[in-house]
Amino acid sequence: MLFPYKFVEHNICRLNDWIEFLFTEVWCNADEEYSLDLLNGCPDLKKVAEEEAWKEDPSMKPNDYITGPISVIYDLFKTELDGKQRKTLRKKFIKSRNLEKVLFHSKYYDVLENTYIESLSPILAKNLYDFYTNLFDNVLNLTVIKDRNGTLKNHYDAFVKINTAGICPFCGINTIRSYEMAGHEAYDHFLPKEKYATYSINFKNLVPTCHDCNSIHKLRKSPIFDFKVGQNLRAFYPYSQNALDVDIICNVNIKNYKDYGHRHLTINFKGKSRFEQDKINTWTNIYNTETRYKDHLTNESKGKYWLVQMLDELEKQTDRDKEIARLVKNYDRNKFKGDNLLKVPFLKACRTEGLF
């Protein structure tokens, strides 16, 4: 990740607060008969459950994503888990909410995986998975929720008015559409809901992401665990308050500036410490960053055109030196504006190689 997002407080985030109350104060304390009065500690959630209660009648057709599942899961907590298990799960759930510490694998702050709940009760895990994934896929779009908390588009518009870079922080090359446009970018579940369902509606785990990053490269990969080799990974926290510092170092072995390919380029990503380097390695692997950057630099309208500009449009070496100095100055001001991110390291490498 090249730079962090600023987290935006919005009414839509309240749904996650309501569900956290439900998990910690209702389900994990399940020891009596269920009734809607158990939701008295969260009046907004109780009102929503009451308004949606009519859907419990199967003759009414519409799917019940709230009231029925809440009571079913409550009964499963009561029958499938004993008091000690519920208490342990509650503690684990609370600790797992600190996403920044979870991503850094801080002691006592473990991620809550679907498999952990499955180890306690497969039927409970299945019902929780269905409930949580429906929160994002369906509940956010219910009128009863939108009337209270607004829509995902409302949140997105507020989000991009504060996060104004205009590019995807996971690749730095694709734009993020503005609030003036219809629709919105996809919200990636940074911790994929397929493996970590309880983060499904946590907006600190939801990050607007360009189509390529979300739907082509990251997909359902976990940024904190490599399931293929069974190894923990360190990841950037998308809403960190600390600036990220990634140096992109490019080397070239180009003989013909109009005809070169990926094999003629090497790109390295350097952090300021071993821990930062671990995060960078996770980021570049998940988003296939090196290959995508090479593709950018071998594109006729990008990298190859930048070289044409330097060699064909600027005939004098003094003019080329001035242009490089101007680009470096712009890069130092803001490496994420225009084509600075890749153009400057690439052209500097070309100059070092002796292309101009």
Structure write-up:
The protein has 356 residues and is mainly alpha-helical. It folds into two domains: 222 residues, no CATH class; 107 residues, no CATH class. Helices cover 47% and strands 7% of the residues. Strands 1-2 form a two-stranded antiparallel sheet. The protein has a two-stranded antiparallel ribbon with strand order 3-4. A two-stranded antiparallel ribbon has the order 5-6. Helix 3 runs antiparallel to helix 7, helix 6 packs antiparallel against helix 7 and helix 14 runs antiparallel to helix 15.
Count of domain modules: 2
- Share of helix, binned: 40-55%
How many DSSP E strands?
A: 6
Question: How large is the radius of gyration?
Answer: 25 Å
Shape: elongated
Strand order of the largest sheet: 1-2
Q: What's the helix count?
A: 15
Oligomeric composition of the shown chains: single chain
Low-confidence stretches: none
State mean pLDDT (0 to 100 scale): 94
